[in-house]
Each structure stands twice: as structure tokens, then as C-alpha cells.
Amino acid sequence: MSIPITQQDLSLTIEGSLDALAVETLRPQFDALVQDETDVVINMDKAEFIDSSGIGAIVFLFKRLRALDRNLSLAGVHGQPLELMKHLRIDQSIQVNR
Which CATH class name applies to 5-96? Predict the structure, then answer.
């Protein structure tokens, strides 16, 4: 998993799996994203797998940003992550772009 953050547009790129182990690594980056004043984009075009921990982390980040009147969107979602998000209807609350 790779987690490069581009501060210019507050975009976070996730590569590989977004599972419980990855969420522990991501927690400080998510906290840093909330500190800025712009919207956040998570690029998932290289993400191959997401589990309930990953979904929970994304929803938690979404709620924190929403409380600050900011937006979260997911870009490049495909495969298993897209299917799980559609099944859980995450795409009805968070903007999910393929």
C-alpha cells in the first residue's frame, strides 16, 4: 500500500488494500487532511481491495469533513471496492467516481 498525499489539492492516493492494517497507517494522514480547509479527494484507481475497516475509515473521514462543511469524494473506484461501496450504498452519500 502506498499513501502519497498531495497537499496542493488535498488528494490521497491509495494503492493495494485498504484493510485493518492499512487503516492503522492511514489514521494520521486522515487527521492531517481534516486540519486543512479544502475538500478532499481519495484516488482509488490503484486500490484492489477494501474491507469493513476501510469502509469505516472512509465514512469516519466523510463525517468529520461534513461537520466542517467540507466534501469528500472518491475517484477511480473500480472492481471489488466499487462493488462493495455500491452494495453498502456508500455511493449515495459520498461522491464516487469511476
Answer: alpha beta
Domain boundaries, the chain: 5-96
Q: What is the mean pLDDT of each run of 10 residues along the chain (98 residues)?
A: 52 91 91 86 94 95 94 95 95 92
Q: Which pLDDT value is given to residue 52?
A: 95
**DSSP for residue 96:** E
* Residue 39 in grid coordinates: 475538500
Question: Using alpha carbons only, what angle is made at residue 3 by residues 17 and 77, rounded to the nearest 5 degrees?
Answer: 50
Residue 38: the pLDDT is: 86
Residue identified by cell 461537520 is 67
Residue 61's nearest CA partner among 8, 12, 16, 3 is 12
Rounded to whole angstroms, the Cα distance separating 38 from 87 reads 29
